[in-house]
């Protein structure tokens, strides 16, 4: 395993591991085809069962808006983010630079960690976010992830979308986010939506990417009700804070042709533009939503009335 030295904050140095990076490509699916998928095929196309693994980086490259969904869990040494084969061009540097033509959102759901970009360190605590703009000739060429404590490693959940220009790197905390109370306990969906990486929120500028966190209150299980679709955006959910022994029943599909996918803690799911995306848990839970497409207007959606769902 190739290793290099990195100078961290406060003059400290660390050995960076060239961690094993795993990836797979998911092709886009027509809704008429998806109607005929059995459980195994549905999970193969849309469920992401392995997001985090110690000392590794895992990516899924979806052809829905060419979206990248990933997780990195540095443990004993920092790890560097590199590009993956489907993103390579004939430029030699593209085999190392993840963010040529891309922007990146990172939300930490583990212990304290640090994201170091071109030598500048950004500390991320639990449920803190970082937006990283497209790489150019001067910025965002080198991204290194590290954990403060190997016994309680950081877990960096990542979404990346195509970007037409470079915007500044920006950290966002829950206090700085746009925090919206939604739903009610009576309807079993009392929750708080934290808009974090949203164009115009907390000084963040983005090209396509939107990310945030939704927390369900104790006693509530339903998220994203009434359900909706985004014909101009795709979306992904990462479910976490799911208690041991509990599960999430994620519902996807066209509004009148829905399908269930059962998910465990720290598993994710891809939601195509034509699909609703909602869930009920056997307990309350938290999830990260990430979106990309041609439109940055958060409220641009096609709401589906609950009685019409099938």
UniProtKB/TrEMBL annotation:
<keyword id="KW-0413">Isomerase</keyword>
<dbReference type="InterPro" id="IPR007045">
    <property type="entry name" value="KduI"/>
</dbReference>
<dbReference type="GO" id="GO:0045490">
    <property type="term" value="P:pectin catabolic process"/>
</dbReference>
<dbReference type="GO" id="GO:0008270">
    <property type="term" value="F:zinc ion binding"/>
</dbReference>
<feature type="signal peptide">
    <location>
        <begin position="1"/>
        <end position="19"/>
    </location>
</feature>
<dbReference type="GO" id="GO:0008697">
    <property type="term" value="F:4-deoxy-L-threo-5-hexosulose-uronate ketol-isomerase activity"/>
</dbReference>
<dbReference type="InterPro" id="IPR021120">
    <property type="entry name" value="KduI/IolB_isomerase"/>
</dbReference>
<comment type="similarity">
    <text>Belongs to the KduI family.</text>
</comment>
<keyword id="KW-0862">Zinc</keyword>
<feature type="binding site">
    <location>
        <position position="235"/>
    </location>
    <ligand>
        <name>Zn(2+)</name>
    </ligand>
</feature>
<dbReference type="InterPro" id="IPR011051">
    <property type="entry name" value="RmlC_Cupin_sf"/>
</dbReference>
<feature type="binding site">
    <location>
        <position position="230"/>
    </location>
    <ligand>
        <name>Zn(2+)</name>
    </ligand>
</feature>
<keyword id="KW-0732">Signal</keyword>
<comment type="pathway">
    <text>Glycan metabolism; pectin degradation; 2-dehydro-3-deoxy-D-gluconate from pectin: step 4/5.</text>
</comment>
<dbReference type="GO" id="GO:0019698">
    <property type="term" value="P:D-galacturonate catabolic process"/>
</dbReference>
<dbReference type="GO" id="GO:0042840">
    <property type="term" value="P:D-glucuronate catabolic process"/>
</dbReference>
<comment type="function">
    <text>Catalyzes the isomerization of 5-dehydro-4-deoxy-D-glucuronate to 3-deoxy-D-glycero-2,5-hexodiulosonate.</text>
</comment>
<dbReference type="Pfam" id="PF04962">
    <property type="entry name" value="KduI"/>
</dbReference>
<dbReference type="InterPro" id="IPR014710">
    <property type="entry name" value="RmlC-like_jellyroll"/>
</dbReference>
<feature type="binding site">
    <location>
        <position position="277"/>
    </location>
    <ligand>
        <name>Zn(2+)</name>
    </ligand>
</feature>
<dbReference type="InterPro" id="IPR027449">
    <property type="entry name" value="KduI_N"/>
</dbReference>
<keyword id="KW-0479">Metal-binding</keyword>
<feature type="binding site">
    <location>
        <position position="228"/>
    </location>
    <ligand>
        <name>Zn(2+)</name>
    </ligand>
</feature>
<protein>
    <recommendedName>
        <fullName>4-deoxy-L-threo-5-hexosulose-uronate ketol-isomerase</fullName>
        <ecNumber>5.3.1.17</ecNumber>
    </recommendedName>
</protein>
């Amino acid at each position: 395993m190739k290793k290099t030295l990195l100078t961290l904050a406060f003059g400290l140095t660390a050995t960076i591991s060239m961690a094993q990076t795993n990836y797979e490509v998911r092709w886009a699916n027509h809704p008429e085809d998806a109607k005929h998928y059995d459980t195994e095929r549905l999970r193969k196309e849309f469920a992401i069962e392995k997001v985090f693994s110690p000392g590794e980086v895992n990516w899924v490259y979806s052809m829905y808006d060419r979206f990248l969904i990933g997780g990195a869990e540095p443990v004993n040494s920092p790890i560097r983010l590199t590009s993956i084969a489907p993103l390579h061009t004939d430029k030699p540097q593209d085999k190392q630079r993840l963010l040529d033509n891309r922007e990146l959102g990172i939300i930490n759901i583990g212990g304290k960690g640090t994201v170091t970009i071109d030598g500048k360190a950004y500390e991320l605590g639990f449920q803190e976010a970082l937006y990283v703009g497209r790489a150019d000739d001067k910025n965002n060429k080198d991204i290194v992830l590290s954990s403060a404590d190997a016994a309680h490693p950081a877990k960096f959940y990542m979404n990346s979308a195509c970007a037409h220009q470079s915007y500044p790197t920006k950290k966002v905390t829950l206090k700085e986010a746009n925090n919206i109370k939604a739903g009610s306990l009576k309807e079993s969906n009392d929750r708080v939506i934290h808009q974090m990486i949203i164009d115009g929120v907390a000084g963040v500028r983005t090209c396509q990417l939107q990310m945030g966190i939704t927390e369900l209150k104790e006693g509530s299980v339903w998220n994203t009700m009434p359900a909706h679709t985004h014909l101009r955006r795709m979306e992904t959910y990462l479910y976490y804070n799911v208690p041991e022994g509990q599960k999430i029943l994620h519902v996807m599909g066209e509004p009148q042709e829905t399908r269930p996918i059962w998910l465990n803690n720290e598993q994710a799911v891809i939601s195509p533009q034509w699909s609703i995306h909602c869930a009920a848990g056997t307990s309350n839970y938290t999830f990260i939503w990430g979106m990309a497409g041609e439109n940055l207007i958060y409220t641009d959606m096609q709401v589906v009335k609950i009685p019409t769902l099938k």
